[in-house]
Amino acid sequence: MSSLRNSRTRLLTAAAAGALAALTLTACNDASGVRDEGSSANAAATASPGSGSSSHNGPNPAPAGSKPAANAPAAKTSAASGNGKNGSRGKAVTCQGSNTKTVAAPLNRPVNHMLLTVTNTGGSTCYLYGYPAVRFGEAQSVPPAIEDSHPQAVVTLKPGESGYASVTLSAADGSGAHGRTEKSLAVYFQGPSGNESVGTAAHPALPAKGVHIDDSLKVTYWQQSMDDAISW
Predict the structure, then answer these.
(1) Measuring CA to CA, which residue among 79, 213, 200 is closest to residue 137?
(2) How far is 171 from 168, CA to CA, in rounded Å?
(3) Which stretches of the chain are DSSP H helices?
(4) Is residue 175 a contact partner of residue 124, using CB atoms and an 8 Å limit?
């Protein structure tokens, strides 16, 4: 009888302990005192790097259309200017027929004179060296320059600017020899040395009736102003 009673007592004690543990577990779940492994797994999946959360290394990308911070450095842009040094588009060159336009205009005063106007039509500054080497018709030589007309500095033409020279066509008193009428003109340009022609020649139009020239034919050096050119 005694051993039967002891066995029954042990069974009742074990059952009571199991019930107490169940009640304790239920109370802890209600008070969130036990971690929910399923919920933790879901949270880990939600915070994975592939989801775009801040758990990945490095800065977060800015949202599309957002403005940069006020202290963010401005993006550098490349300069697209077509201008070169000193406002020109490139290195200065020698004036010649291909980068200028030449006009020949007979003058009433001084008599028997013609004005040559050369305008820089290129994109760079050009230099008018020396004097114009003019050739009327089929002439085999060019007339001399008036040495006293030599300017103090080389004539410099920025794009759009003009330089000038005058041509004495014939003697005012008719004393010149070998007078003739010519209807075509070529103007050649000199290089820095002054001893050679460079580039292409200009071929300005002459009046339809032509111009009268004789052995008095001569030219001035290139001048920066029209007044200086026609003063000889």
Answers:
(1) 213
(2) 8
(3) 2-30, 37-46, 226-229
(4) no
Closest Cα partner for 115 from 184, 149, 164, 44? 164
Phi, psi of 100 (to 5 degrees): -140, 165
Over the stretch 27-73, which tens digit does the pLDDT of each residue have? 444 444 434 444 434 433 333 333 333 333 433 434 444 443 444 33
Q: What is the pLDDT of residue 153?
A: 96
- Alpha-carbon distances, residue 206 vs 96, 114, 185, 212 (angstroms): 19, 10, 7, 11
Both tokens of 11, joined, read 């069974």
Q: Could you tell me if 191 and 96 are in contact, meaning their C-beta atoms sit under 8 angstroms apart? A: no
What does the alpha-carbon distance between residue 106 and residue 128 come to, in Å, rounded to a whole number? Answer: 21
3-state SS assignment for residue 45? helix
d(CA 148, CA 190): 18
The backbone torsions φ and ψ at residue 101, rounded to the nearest 5 degrees and listed phi first, read -125, 130
Give the span between the Cα atoms of 126 and 89, in whole angstroms.
11
Mean pLDDT value across residues 117-146: 96
Q: What are phi and psi of 160, to 5 degrees?
A: 95, -15
